[in-house]
Write the structure tokens for this entry.
Amino acid sequence: MRVITGSAKGRRLITPKDNRIRPTSDRIKEALFSMIGGKVVNSYFLDGFAGTGNIGIEALSRGARKCYFVENHRESLSIIKENLTNTKLLDRSELVYKNFTNGIKQISSFHEKIDIIFLDPPYIKGFIQPALLAIVESYVLNTSGIIIIEHSKKDIIEEQDGLICYRQQKYGNTVLSFYEQEEI
């Protein structure tokens, strides 16, 4: 795994020695960032179920103002911190050691609105609906913000009041689903 472009271009990211984490592939990461393009620059970004921090680090490297990394596994947080230190991006980062629902509540208490939320929960484990509900209930998403979920094509995502799925891209068994807030 490497940082594709930006201030940390080419830097290798460390991963755990076991298969506990399924990092986003470089192919999907490149496609994702080409789709969201300039929205990343000066954005407040959130990498949920962050794993190695791969996506949030890429966002910071491409000019995000700040990134929150929400992760509830201690070893993963250590890996994220090491990756942020090695890429010299730690100063624009906030690590939140909580499950996603409690992490989003904590972030909402900071009174900052998030422009881009990226979620990569374990596939087919039922984490997506509670995460979307927590985002809607916390009012943490900027009114023009987006949510991107990387998930298995076998994951079933029900409609969530307040959000609209406006795009889906499929890559084999992996899907990127894009959400925005419903206009009232």
Remarks:
- The radius of gyration is 15 Å.
- The domain at 26-181 is CATH 3.40.50.150 (Rossmann fold).
